[in-house]
Amino acid sequence: MADDTEDDAFDGTSEASEITPVGVKLGSTRTVLQYPKNGEMETVRTLTCLATYEDAITGEEKVLYGEQAAQEFPDTVEFMLRSGLPEDDDRAELAAKFFRELVRAQDIPEDSVVVYAIPTIDNDEGLENLTEVIENSPIGKQQVRSFPESLCGAVPAMGDGLEAIDEVFVAVNMGSTNLEACAYRHAEQLEPFSTGAVTGGEVDRRIANAVEEETQGRVNIDLTTAREYKEEHGDFNNFEPFTDVIQQPGGGSHEFTIERGVMDPLDEYVDEAVDEIANNFLSELANTHMKPYQIALGKPIALTGGMACIPGIEEVFEERLSAELDRDITVVSAERPDLAAAQGAQRIAAKLADNL
User: Fold this and answer.
1) pLDDT of amino acid 317
2) What's the pTM?
3) What is the structure's pLDDT at 3?
4) Contact 125, 317 (CB under 8 A)
5) E strands of the chain, at which residues?
6) Are the CB atoms for 44 and 340 separated by under 8 Å?
7) Whether the Cβ atoms of residue 193 and residue 284 lie closer than 8 Å to each other
8) Exposed, middle or buried by CB within 10 Å (0-12, 13-18, 19+), for 331?
């Protein structure tokens, strides 16, 4: 099946040209792969989901993944990484099947180096399951390594190469299932932080509730629609009220306009994220690693993850964090924060391939 693909300007190829360096981010909602193909950088972005059905003629099990699975089998499709990791054997098996189908469809060479981004989650079993999913896949025969997701995502945010690896800095990962932060000292993790209290998924739930409230209970949307509203209309710079139409249960349709139901939850999200970073993560970092803390806050903070894609959130986060800390803070992000973790992982994979 076809998924979103695009070229990337960074030439993250390996001098050992017969070895393909691959970056992987298996996300709770979307999975991203990046690797060189035919002299260009290929980026594949697809929903992290799987559906199976029985072939009407042969009786064999058929597998669909990504957008096609979600569209054709919305009632049975499995999003096996909703918590961010495959937490049990069943979800690990589904994740392995999904990843095998994905890499085979892209025809990625087995003779490859694979770097995959891992979340900052205190879940040893889930992390072990994720490792097995990647290591037992058809790719990565040369080498398989994992690096923190926030570090991988910071790589393209901080330069055209691997400059982030040699820096002392802070990265904040705004994901669907967790808000993560970490200080890095030459790629060493200092005071990794993660919370499930401030997430993109919670924003979706709040949008659904806000739309119902704004329409006086006449409109109820599911979480998928709420996420689409967030991704398509959320904008801290130039938000414009938008109109949608739903079908009424008894027939006919109802047109409604959303003015506050998207941006109010997003505004709350930034306030809560700033509070977590300033008063939990950074305060603890200052207590345990004062000198790296001082160095890191004198340099740009790298913002990564899907929520960092909301236009204008970088500037709003910078302004509010500066006010909370009572000092000037600079925030940077990659051109596509949702692709940044796979992009950074691919650059690291290219470096590892060169050293083989």
Assistant:
1) 98
2) 0.86
3) 56
4) no
5) 4-8, 20-26, 30-37, 40-47, 50-54, 61-65, 112-118, 143-148, 168-174, 179-185, 188-195, 242-247, 253-258, 301-304, 331-333
6) no
7) yes
8) buried
